[in-house]
Every structure is written in C-alpha cells, then in structure tokens.
Amino acid sequence: MDKNMKIVAAALKDTIRKYSKKDPARFNLLPFARLIEITQKMNLDGTDLQVMMKFCFEAGLPITFSELGIVNNEETLRYAAKRTVGRGYRRKGFKCDEQEMYLQFRKINSWGEKITGIRGPEQIAEEFVSQYPAIKEMLKKTRKTKIVFLGDSLMTTLHWGANAGYPDILKELYKKFNKRVEIINSGIGGHTSWQGLARLKKDVLAHKPEYCVILFGGNDLFATKGGKEMKWMKKFRLSMEQMIKTLKKNGVKPVLLSGTVIKPFQPELYEKEVVAVQKKLAARFKIGLIDTYLSMNSGTLDLRLAPDKIHLNNCGQKDMARLVLGWIAETL
Description:
The protein is an alpha/beta fold.
C-alpha cells in the first residue's frame, strides 16, 4: 500500500471514529481509500472508475460513506477532506487542497449511492412527482415514442454532481406512468460535439429512435481555453451540422437544447458560441429546439449547481427534466 492510500484510509478511520456509531473494525477501508486516490488521477468523468466501483460493489466492498458507518452530510465530508489534506496527501508532487479532496469524496459517495441503489434516478423521480403532481397526467398523455438523449456530463447517468441526470429522471417517470415512451440516455461525461458525432451510429442510430435530444458545447468551449482558440468553436458548428444531417438522413428527428447554466464561462461568450449557434441551427434545419438556457440562468444559479459550480445538482437536473417534459407534452 502506497503512502497516499495510507493517508486517505487513516483520515477515513478518523472520520468514522468522530461521526460513526457503527463498529469500524468490520469494514475494510483500503478499497474505498484506493477509489478516492484513483479519482485524483482520472480524466473526464472516470468511466473506468465507475466500472471499478461496480466491481467493488459486486465483491461486497464498501463504496459509500453509509457503508463505512458515516452519515453523508456536509460536515462529515468536509471533515474527511480536511483530515486527508491535514495528513499530507499529495498528488504528483503538489498538495491537494481541501476543496478538491472534498469534491473527490462527494464524487465517490454519489456514484456509490447510485450503484448501491441508496439514492438514484428512481428516488429523484419520486421527489419530482411530489414537487409537481400535475405532471402525472402530462406523462400519461404522451404518445408512443422512443427518445435518445445525446450529450456530455450534464446528461450522463453517473455524474457525481447529482443522483440522477434529467434523461434518467424522465426515464423513471415514463417507466412508472407511461411505458409506451422509451427514454435512452447516451450522455458521456467530458465529451465534445465531435466525440458525440463519432459515436452517433453506435449510441443513437442503433436504437432506432424517433427523436434525438442533443446538448453539447460546454466541453467544446472549455477546449478553447476561455475563447482564445475559437477554431474549436468552428469545429463545434461543423460537428453539430453533420450530426443533424446524419440523423435526418436516417429518419431520426434531431431536437436541440439551447443550453444550461454556464457560470464558469463569460455568459456573453457561451451565448454567442453555443446558445446562438443552437438556435441558428434549429432555424436553418427546421428542427425542434427546447429553449432551456434562459430558464436555467434565471434566479439564484447556485441553487442548481453542484459544489464545482459547473455541473447541475439534483435541483438543476429536476429543472431540466421539467423543461424537457414541457416540450414533450406540447410536441407529442
């Protein structure tokens, strides 16, 4: 066991001693500690790491704080992060700060909760119905159809920022209230539009859907380093055009989302290079557009955002689900 993993494990034991009422002796902390350490080395949204977590789960190893006897709340997560950093955790020669380590603990715990079924799409969908009971009739009236969602981490099933992406919330809702509607989530964290285009045949056309709802742009814009390399945004426009043409050629109706919360970037840049482009493409190709951008950027943005201030939290995901559902109800 390397030094860093010992540090994480020791910090977790300290957190258990402080906050847990369970007997920590019966839990092996090393797999959990190793998962935390690996998140420090993974790129994108850690698709490989999620596979490893599923393996750990099937092997009976702990992948959530609750399995370690720790209550999942801000206090314990912050404490665990503080203790880990305080014990001298280092990644590739530099010291990891408390905020970054806190995000890693949240990431592992959130993924673990969904994999173990403690809290995932089904539970979030139930919360959604409780908040908006009138949607039951809306869901029941939707005609038979199949919809594939294609995008990045704002859609993906196992992104850490929320316990369910909005396509998965909708999938659970229709599963319960209208089985004639099939929802398929083909979101992959970290993907750009050109990566979405590359997997169009496998992740969309292979399912033979009637509609494909698309949202890219955030990672494309991130690749521009704040707008200094706008050649990437030209690539974004070309990739989106090709995506639309390919879908239409194969009898699939493309539907674009105008955008979502984009706090880390300059709003005017995102509006010009992503939102405006989506609207122009929708008008040019005469395809559907779900104008989510204005609604998602109104009010207090932090209420919709995960702690990294980039991705949507459960509240933000439910807001997106409500907006998409409104379009489905009007169109179908």
